[in-house]
Amino acid sequence: xxxxxERPNGTDSGKNLLAQILLLLTxxxxxxxxxxxxxxxxxxxxxxxxxxxTLSAVMGVTLGTSTFIIxxxxxxxQIVMLGSRFERRQWLQLPSVLLFSAMIDAWMAVLSRVPVxxxxxxxxxxxxxxxxxxxxxxxxxxxxxxxxxxDGAVLAASIVTGRAFPTIKxxxxxGCVIAAAAVGLVFLGNLYGIGxxxxxxxxxxxxxxxxxxxVLMPGEQL
Length: 222
Known about the structure:
Oligomer: single chain
Shape: globular
Order of helices and strands: HHHHHHHH
Low-confidence stretches: 5-12
């Protein structure tokens, strides 16, 4: 599938723009629900969310706020890496990630009222969250519009280095976990937000995307 950042003329299909936008928004809502749910399970959040979660505890801000701040840094890194190849329409990543971050906080507020206690409930919530996240990611990809800045940075690095997107993605996820661990140990004295659920999510989301893809994106290649 041609990636949004590489596509010079918007979409290469006859999809209605409004339908694509609605699909993107739905994907974002589903994805952020998954992030909030796995965080609420308290067994370790997703690898990519470990750094925002740790920084939220250090800075005393919401998870959505720290997610937005980190994504701004990833957005700027795209401009540096791509230079003249950075397309103007990619500035739309900024309002997109602002909404994405607000959705995280909204879901966190909703789920804070839902009791998740005991090992069975926590693991059930964590595993369900991975399914939800996988579905949300696929819906966003199917919209063929724009990526969130953190994924856009991975794609930019892939373009610049010539390395495969999945390879860079794994390296980025590992880097986020390492950075989160360092920040947590230095400022909080523990591995905040990192746990068994993080390890499970690292493998589960990718596998689930492969399983769910035939349903949400039949005939398309990632």
